[in-house]
Amino acid sequence: MAICNKAWISLLLALAVVLAAPAARAEEAAAAEEAAPAAGEEAVLTLGTDNFDDAIAKHPFIVVEFYAPWCGHCKSLAPEYEKAAQLLSKHDPPIVLAKVDANDEKNKPLAAKYEIQGFPTLKIFRNQGKNIQEYKGPREAEGIVDYLKKQVGPASKEIKAPEDASHLEDGKIHIVGVFAELSGPEFTNFLEVAEKLRSDYDFGHTVHANHLPRGETAVERPLVRLFKPFDELVVDTKNFEVSALEAFIEASSTPKVVTFDKNPDNHPYLLKFFQGNSAKVMLFLNFSTGPYESFKSAYYGAVEDFKDKEVKYLIGDIEASQGALQYFGLNADQAPLILIQDAESKKFLNSNIEADQIVSWLKEYFDGKLTPFRKSEPIPEANNEPVKVVVADNLDDVVFKSGKNVLIEFYAPWCGHCKKLAPILDEAATTLQSEADVVIAKMDATANDVPGDFDVQGYPTLYFVTPSGKKVAYDGGRTADDIVEYIKKNKETAGQEAAAATEKAADPAATESLKDEL
After folding, report:
1. Name one GO cellular component term (predicted).
2. What does the pLDDT look like over 45-78, one tens digit per residue?
3. Bridge partners of 237?
4. What domains can be seen in the chain, in order of their start residue?
5. Omega before residue 120 within 30° of 0, cis
6. Bridge-partner residues for 284, per DSSP?
7. Which residue among 415, 425, 428, 483 is the active-site one?
């Protein structure tokens, strides 16, 4: 059964949609009309298991959208994707756009092979599929066209004259390799990194350092120079080992403090900030009222004080970051606030903080002296429906300490699959009401923090937990009869629970494993 995107991915997608600022261009609209195929003919290729490999082998550069017919984002993308395909069909060489219905049973092996976790997912296939990259560009036709035109041809362009370098201070990130000659292991490694990261950055190379902005003739070559519109503006490295060069680019291409506001120039850094599992420190306040400058000064000072810590920093305007606050279960009345989310997704919160408290509070966090904050809906006063409502604050009591066999669903209110499953769970729970040792429960994973015990990558996700603490991802059918049969087959009786507990108590390794798991 297909799943809906996980909440964190949904936040990123929502940000991408909200923050995108398409600019219509009359000349490209006219070109689209001229390039349009005959009526009823689509420029986007339709692929499936029967023709996918042939298409990848035929086209040296092809973009494939994995979609689901029910997906709202996919429906919004469809006309833009088709328009882009029409425009790009006239490009020299042609740039091919294709799509795969990943919700179709026969195509699900393709979705699994390419690790499709949500819809729409776009991937760029180069060199007959030998090089596969995520598409990270815009989602409107003109933006798609511009982005993909830059993706064909060499990954790095040679800078032969000063005018070739005039774009390096255009407010974007550019990476330039400066070499004594365009050969050798350093140049080869540079081109390898450029090919790998070309969908994210603009690369160039030269033997003339003086062609670069603020370039000097006497530069010690080879080196890589990264141009950026923030912090120190230019930063160099002479380490050409591939992984080190990738790490340098990653670390240098994000501001020390990412700004969450309505300025579209900041949005690429914002999306990058929320990706990955590294610890994040976020200050939210009103940029237009109150002592904004004093908070900004104190916060940037704290960033400098703790620059040796492996964390990301963000400063967000309350007006622009309502979606993020909602995701974390916060509201504007708590601002100015600092929220920290660590690498294990534990959260630490200080609401209505004063500017002069920022450094001391962050020091307490780094010293391990703070208590985590947990997002939770209120514990229900009445919980009499067949499917019990679980929230973050009572999950431990209902699931792990109740002494019962619990099937718990993690869902999202907007998820279509979850809505279809709801009456099925109700029917199964009603059937099992006479089973005193069985509970079917549900938790809104968008309104409550999901403990790390559960790997919730999409909705709905179901787990079965026994009284002895055994926890397994539910892999049974999705009918009421399937669920009832699964629970009856896998539940523990009182005797089995006691035996399991005795076995674990007798096995120190198992006890330690259980501690780690719980």
Report:
1. endoplasmic reticulum
2. 999 999 999 999 999 999 999 999 988 899 999 9
3. 224
4. 45-152 (3.40.30.10), 157-253 (3.40.30.10), 257-367 (3.40.30.10), 388-492 (3.40.30.10)
5. yes
6. 316, 337
7. 415
